## 1
Amino acid sequence: MTALETRALLNQLEAAVGANLDRHLASAEAWMPHEYVPWSEGRNFTALGGEPWSVEQSKLSPIARTALEVNLLTEDNLPSYHAELGRTFGREGAWGVWVNQWTAEEGRHASCIRDYLLVTRGVDPEELERARMATLQAGFDAGGKPLLHACAYVSFQELATRVSHRNTGRYSGDPIAEKLLTRIAMDENLHMIFYRNLVKAALEIAPSRTLQAITDEVTGFVMPGSVIPGFARKAAQIANAGIYDLRIHHDDVIMPLLRHWRIFEAGGLDAEGERARQDLAEALGTLDARAARFVERRAEAEAVRRAGRRG
Ligand SMILES: [Fe+2]
Ligand SMILES: [Fe+2]
């Protein structure tokens, strides 16, 4: 897409951005992150005369620790996401207001998950800090996504983070963590709705191009946390625990959005748009089959583990 075409599209979408910004501001709650942290559990670490961290202090299981840490480090990389959105959406008008509003809301997420984890001694604070440094040093580079691709990506990404926070909260076994992550997931849901509505508006303005962007983002989707040290190993543990796996990605993230956008009923497509839709259908078939294989293999491995425990 040329710079001129992007400019025209930004202008065409501006009314939808304005209307959705108003809707968002009316429905977003100004919640207070400090209310979600059990401060009375906190105590000093070594440098202030307290105890160093050790694993038995954590009430969380190893996988719950990993999931919370991955969610936190993903949120920590906000400076990169802010820079990416500013570059793609610009700083002017309703687009610019949205970028700053979104950034301010996202800023709560890392700070209260970190407060929770430090106060409860949920994770190793030194390892966490080293991982935070490495994550921000790596940064997040969306690779110069064009406008429509960026809108499709963030729709999927916000829904993926909502599901991931919600399921991590449930898995944690700590009602305080669950309450906190449920609250954060509500923010992610509102963010998802904002972007989902923009994509809906884009489908009316430029159906074929938007469909192409959606197809590209479904086939090339990468979690924003992919730059976290050891991400592949951690993501595999999170998938094995059923917190976020391919089945969930297909059923709870990709498909609900495609259904909402009525992708397979949309008219007005040119030849390229039709081809993109066929590619999308194929990609969904592949993803669904991979998800089925993953679930099968996980069940088999679980059965072997159970048999081993009995034997
Ligand atoms: Fe967030
Ligand atoms: Fe979000």
## 2
Amino acid sequence: MAIPAMRSLEEIQQLEHDYSLPLYAKREIALVRGEGAYLYDSTGKSYLDAMSNYGVAVLGHADPEFTAALTDQLSMLSTCHQSFYNDQRAELLAKIATIAPEGVQRAFLSNSGAEAIEAALKFARATTGKPKIVAAMRGYHGRTMGALSATADNKYRAPFEPLPIPATHVSFNDLDALEVAVDGETAAIILEPIQGEAGIYPATPEYLKGAREIATAKGALLIADEIQSGFRTGIPFSIVDAGVIPDMIATAKAVANGFPIGLTLTTDAISSAMPGGAHGTTFGGNPLACRAAIVTLNALEQRGLYSRADALGAQIIARIEELGNPKVRQVRGRGFMIGLELKERVTPTLRGLQERGVLALTASSTSLRFLPPMIWEQEQVDELIAVLGEVLSA
Ligand SMILES: Cc1ncc(COP(=O)(O)O)c(C=O)c1O
């Protein structure tokens, strides 16, 4: 049952066009409600959510436990600056310490992915005293000026150059290139263990191990950007699967089921290089965000969602391959982070899915991206495969 939107679709569109910046390529629907794995637009049409709003709504929409916890927290305390102690913040830090790799258990709490990256880059500068970073081609780390220095794509960078942090971008999964690029001036190597925006390209375990060795040998830090890959690949942090412990992990999207939060996990040594006043944020670590993160991280464990995402994700990949559709070039990914590369531009397929009630994302111009909520069950997988099969054959 759809709750009618207060305004018509045309009115909603007009207001967004008239009073916001034209920064986003808009899809023509207005989403007004969600329930579990489904979203509803202003006309009442339902959609299978295969994107969790760019990877954030891991518990789906209007989850009763999540809603009750946030409502309770709103009635207690929603804001508390970090110059005061707070019970929910302490609880979240204790929780993070149980899921972070050994030795990378100190967290800086902020409000978005880009902010988590900004903090990591600033911490790297303070710890090493070095100015440069090395990142990967096709890597995406956010759009604020520091994070943009690490982001590779020229279409994002060029209008804002010179960017504040000197960065070299090397080809991904190429250890020789990394070895050459990292020098005595390099503060950090920053990598996505699975490149997301680029089209879901996993780093090989050898590459991640090699990056760790190169960073250590040259006195640079290794930063894992798990903002998109965090929590949805069967384990909290996918780099750990390769047997690699980075110096810092930046994560955000899924941490609090869509409530804005950023986390920069660091070592004691890095923490010691950041004295009082060296960094900060008004909203970071607020009790509402912390409570949202606690309930999300607990639910992922208690409801067995890590292993289910791993199993159902593998099934999605296998079943797309079994479709045997000639338009498909490759299916890549792990858990609920799946890229489907076509031999043609993906916009018509994305549109076809949306018309038939499935919301997915693009990554590159030829790759579709599926980042489903982790509450998906067999029924949603079957629905996705059925609709995708129809759309690809149309
Ligand atoms: C890997 C990665 N890093 C950083 C970011 C930036 O996060 P935010 O959009 O929250 O600033 C993103 C966002 O898509 C991302 O996928």
